[in-house]
Amino acid sequence: MDVQNIPGSRINRVNNSVIKLEFSNGLLVLLKEIHTAPLISHWLWYRVGSRDEIPGNTGASHWVEHMQFKGTPQFPAGVLDKAIAREGGFWNAFTYLDWTTYLETMPANKIDLALRLEADRMQNSNFSPEEVDLERTVIISERQGSENEPLFRLGEEVQAAAFRVHNYHHQVIGDLPDLESMDRATLFDHYRTYYAPNNAVLAVAGDFNSEQMMAHLRQLYEPISAGVLPPRYARSEPLQRGQRQVTVEGPGETIYIQAAYHAPSASHPDFFAMLVVDSLLSGPSSLNVFSGGISNKTSRLYRALVENEVAVSVSGGLQATIDPFLHSISIIVHPQSIPEKAIATLDDEIQRLQDQAPDRQEVERAVKQARALFAYGNERITNQAFWMGFSEMIANYEWFENYLERLAAITPQDVQRAAQTYLRPQNRTLGVYLSTGDGEERP
Amino acid sequence: MNSNLQAAVRHSLPGPEDIIRQGLPNGIVILSRANFNSQSIHISGLLPAGALFDVDEKLGLADFTASALMRGTSRRDFQQIYDTLESNGASLGFGCGTHTTSFSGKALVEDLDTLLDLLAEVLRQATFPDEQVERLRAQLLTALAMRAQNTGDMAGLAFDEIVYAAHPYSRPDDGYVETITAIQQSDLAAFHKKCYGPRGALIAVVGGIDPTAAVEKVARALGDWKNPEQLAPPSLPPLKPLEQVSTRRVTIPGKSQADLVIGAAGPPRRSPDFLPVVLGNNVLGQFGMMGRIGESVRERSGLAYYASSSLGGGPGPGSWDISAGVDPENVSQAVDLIFQEITRFVNEPISAEELKDTQDSYIGRLPLTLESNAGVAGALLYLERYQLGLDYYQNYAHMVKAITANDILEAAQRYLEPGRLAIAIAGPPQGPSAGLP
Lengths: 443, 437
Fold this sequence. Notes:
The complex is a heterodimer of chains A (443) and B (437). Chain A is built from 16 helices and twelve strands. Chain A is an alpha+beta fold and 443 residues long. In chain A, strands 1-2-3-7-4-6-5 form a seven-stranded mixed β-sheet, with helices on both faces. In chain A, strands 8-12-9-11-10 form a five-stranded mixed β-sheet, sandwiched between helices. In chain A, helix 10 (300-306) runs antiparallel to helix 11. The longest helix of chain A has 19 residues, at 129-147. Chain A is globular. Chain B has two domains: 17-222, 2-Layer Sandwich (Cytochrome Bc1 Complex, Chain A, domain 1), CATH 3.30.830.10; 246-435, Cytochrome Bc1 Complex, Chain A, domain 1 (2-Layer Sandwich), CATH 3.30.830.10. In chain B, strand 1 (20-23) and strand 2 (29-34) form a beta hairpin.
C-alpha cells in the first residue's frame, strides 16, 4: 500500500511490516498484516489510567472501562457481548496506571463488528444512572475479591507508601470511599474528557489488506472530532531519602514480603539495564500481559532464598511505565524461617550485584531468555497487536522494535551501575504481611 | 461466512492430512503438527499416573512425585536441570490431576533436542534426593496453608466433598497437611517405579519443525523406555447421586468476600450427553457476559464481579457447577438467583436464538483456540485421549449444528436437578447465609 497517497494524514513511519499513520483528528493508527491464521486482533488504546485520577475519583478510569460495556444507542447493553461471542471472538478491556485498552480478536471476516462498536463507543456510551449504580456494587465486589488475597493488601500499602506525591500511589481499582461515593456525572465527565481520537491509538494486526483496512478505519473514525485534552498530571515523585516500611496484618499462617524500588521509566536509558537486573535477580519476565514467562530456579534470589530454605518462592517484576514506577520483589517466607532472615538474604544478593559486575555469559543468557519469550508471544496475533499499541502508550513503536537490540547492548558494567543506582535501601519501600494466625483482624 | 472463507477456516483446522500420529511399540503415542510461522515448539503430554493411585493416608503422593521429578536425576542435580532449561529460555513443568500426570514445555526450535533429552531423563531417571524432597515438602505445605485461606479453593473442596462423597473425586489431588507430612522419600521412588511408564503415555509436539522429524526425535528420546512393573490405573467406582440439596459452609475469618459453588456431577467426556451439555452450559453461564447466570447475578442485580458456570468433563463424571464471588451479606440472594436460573434451565428448552448463539460461538472460536502452538498441542492430546478421531475438528461444525434445544434440555435434566444439588460457601463468619437450606 502506498500510504504517501492518503490525503489528510500525517505519515509517521512505514517499514516492511508495520504501517503507522495519524488521521487528521489525531487518531494514531498502526497496522500489521499477518496471514498465518484467519484472525484479526484489534486494540484501541486510550491515554488514560489511574494516574489521571485524584482523591475523590480514584478508580474512575477502571469504572469507565466497565461502563463501556453497558451499551450505546446503536449497540445496547448485552448486545455487544453476545455479538462478539456469537462470532467466536474474544474481547476484553484492561485499565492500568497509564492507559486503558479495549481488544477484540475475531475471525477475519467478522472484524467489522468490532471496528464499528469501538468507533461508536468512543463517543456514544450511555452511562445510564441505573447501570452506574449496578456497576458500583460489581466493582466493589471485584475489590473485595482482591482484598481476599494477602499480596493485594500488601501491594496496595507498599505502593501507597512508595508514592507520596505522584498519582501512581493508588490502586487502579480505586479506594473504597471513592467507589462508594463517585457519581454518574464524575464518571461521564472522565469519559468525555479522555475518550477522543487525539487521545487514542488504534492497533490492528492480522489477516487483512492494509489499504482496505485503512480506508474502512478512516470512514469510521474521521467523522469524530478531536477533543480538548487536559495536560496529564505530572507531579514528579521527589527523591526518596530513606527506607520506608509498612506492615500489614491478616489471617493465615503465611508471611509475605514485598520490596519495591523506584525504577526508571520505560523510555529512560537505564530501563533495559534494569530489565537485565530483574532477570538476573529473580528470573526473566515478559512485559506482555498475554505471554507467560519461564521458571526462575537458577536466578540469584531463588538460589539464595529458596535453595537455602529461607523462602518458598520469590518473584520479581519491572513495569514499563511513562513515569518512574517500581521494581518489586515478592517473597513468600519459608514456614521455618523469619522475615528478617529473608530480608538480610535479599540485601546480601543485591550487595553482591552492586559490588561485582556479573559475568558476560550471565548477561548474554538473559538476552537469550528475552528472545525466547518474544518468540513464544509472537505466535499469537493478539500479542502482536498488543505490542504495537502498548509501546505507543509508554514510549513509541520504535521502542518495541529495538527492544532486543537494546537489551543485547547492555554490558555487565551497565547492570552493576543500575543495581547501584536503583537498588539502594534509601530508594526502597519494604512491606511485610504478618499472619495473625487465628484469622482475627486486630482493631 | 462465504464459501471461500469457510474453506480457508476448515483448512486451518488440524486434520488427518497435517497431523502425524505414531504409536511406538512400547505404548507411547506421539502426535505432531507443524507451525512454520513459529520459531518455537511446544510439547504437551500425559501419563496415566494420577491421584487415583493414592491411598487416603498418603493423599497427594502422585502430585508430590510429579512436583519432585525435576529435583534431580542420576545424571543431573536440581540446578543443572534448570540451568539447561533456563539458559535456553526454555521451560518444562509437570502437574498432576486425578487421572493423569501431565507435562508441558516450550523452547526455541533449535533447542528441541535439549528439551526432549531432559524430558526423557526426568521421566526415567528421577532420583528424588532427600534434601530436595524436604525442601519441596515445605513448599507444598505452604501452598496448602495458602489454600486454607483461599475462599474459592475452600468452597471448591467443600463442594467436591458433598457431590463425590465416598468417591475418589471427593479428594483434593494435592492432599492435606497430614498426608503430605506422612509421605516418605521412599514413597515417591516407589510411586515412580510402579506408576510411571510408557504404556498409555501421550506426547504432542507442535511448532516450527517438520512433524515427521519431530516424531522421530521423540521416538529417539523415549522409544526404548520400558517398565514391565507399570501398574494399570484403578477403575472408577460408580457415583451415588445426591438425594437432596446439601449445603456446607467453611468459615475463613478476615475475608472481604465469600465464594460459593453450586452444582452436581456432570457427564464424562465420552458420554453422548457431553456435547449437548457443553452447548447448554455455555447458555447457562458463559455466553457473552457469563450467560444467564451472569445476566441475573451481575448485570441485573450487581451482586458479583464474577458469576459463571463450568463443566469438568474428563474420563469420569466431572462437576457441572456455578460459582460466584459475592459480598458476604448477599450470599443468600445470590444462591436464590442461581437456583432460579437452574430451575428455568432444566424446565424449558433454550430459545432458538440461544441455540444458534451457542452453536455459532463454539464453531467460530475454533481458529482462536487453535492459534498458538500450545493450543494445538492441547487439542491433539484431547483428540487422542478421548479417541475422537483426527478429523474431529474438521467435523466439529457439523456435530455442533446437529444438536437441538431438546437434546440440551434432556441432557441437562439428567444432571442438574434443583432438588439434588450441592451448595458450598466459604467466607467470613457473618451474613444471612445461615438461613440457607
